[in-house]
TrEMBL record:
It comes from the Eukaryota. One of its GO terms (biological process) is negative regulation of transcription by RNA polymerase II. It is found in: Nucleus. Its main location: nucleus. Keywords: Nucleus, Repressor. It comes from Arabidopsis lyrata subsp. lyrata. The keyword Transcription does not apply. This is Paired amphipathic helix repeat-containing protein. One of its GO terms (cellular component) is chromatin. GO terms for molecular function: transcription corepressor activity.
Length: 163
C-alpha cells in the first residue's frame, strides 16, 4: 500500500513538474521561477533535486544546505578519524602494558574517565590521577596528556571509554 501511495505521489508531482520543465529555456526570463517551482516540488527528494542540476548552467546549480554541511563534515571526518586512531593507539598501549603486572590500571583509568565525564572530577584532578596510575610509563603519560589537551576533554573521555 505504501508503494502504491508513493507512485501516486510521483505521478501527481510529475503532472506539475513536466509543464514547468517544458517552459524552461536557459535564457528565458522565467528561469528562476521554474527553478523555484522544481525546488518546491522536489523538496523531499534530494537525489532528484540534485539530478536536476544536469539541466542547469553552473551559476544556477541547486545546492542543498545539507550538501554544504556534508562537505564540511567530510573535512572534519579526517580529523575525527585521527582522534579516534590516537585514542585507540593509546588504549592499546595501555592494555598491552597492564596485561601482566598492573591488571587494575585499565579499570582505574576508565573509572577516572567515567568520573570526569559525569562531572565528578576536574581536568586538573584527571591529570593528577592518570599521572599517578601511569607513574612508571612516562611515554603513556605524555601520549595521554597530548591527546587529552589537544582535543575537547569531555569528548576525549567519551572516546577513551568506548575503546
Amino acid at each position: 500500500m505504501e508503494i502504491l501511495l508513493l507512485f501516486i505521489y510521483i505521478v501527481l508531482t510529475a503532472s506539475y513538474f513536466l509543464p514547468a520543465f517544458h517552459t524552461y529555456l536557459p535564457h528565458q526570463p522565467g528561469r528562476d521561477g521554474v527553478i523555484a517551482k522544481v525546488k518546491e516540488l522536489l523538496k523531499d527528494h534530494h537525489d532528484l533535486l540534485l539530478g536536476f542540476n544536469v539541466f542547469l548552467s553552473a551559476e544556477a546549480k541547486i545546492v542543498i544546505p545539507s550538501e554544504a554541511k556534508k562537505a564540511e563534515y567530510l573535512a572534519k571526518s579526517a580529523d575525527t578519524e585521527k582522534k579516534h586512531a590516537d585514542a585507540e593507539d593509546f588504549m592499546n598501549k595501555l592494555k598491552t602494558r597492564s596485561r601482566t603486572l598492573d591488571t587494575h590500571v585499565v579499570g582505574s583509568f576508565k573509572a577516572i574517565m567515567r568520573m570526569f565525564k559525569e562531572g565528578k572530577m576536574s581536568v586538573k584532578e584527571v591529570h593528577k590521577e592518570v599521572t599517578d596510575i601511569l607513574y612508571y610509563h612516562e611515554d603513556l603519560i605524555n601520549d595521554f596528556l597530548r591527546f587529552f589537551e589537544k582535543n575537547d576533554p569531555i569528548a576525549s573521555a567519551s572516546l577513551l571509554l568506548e575503546l
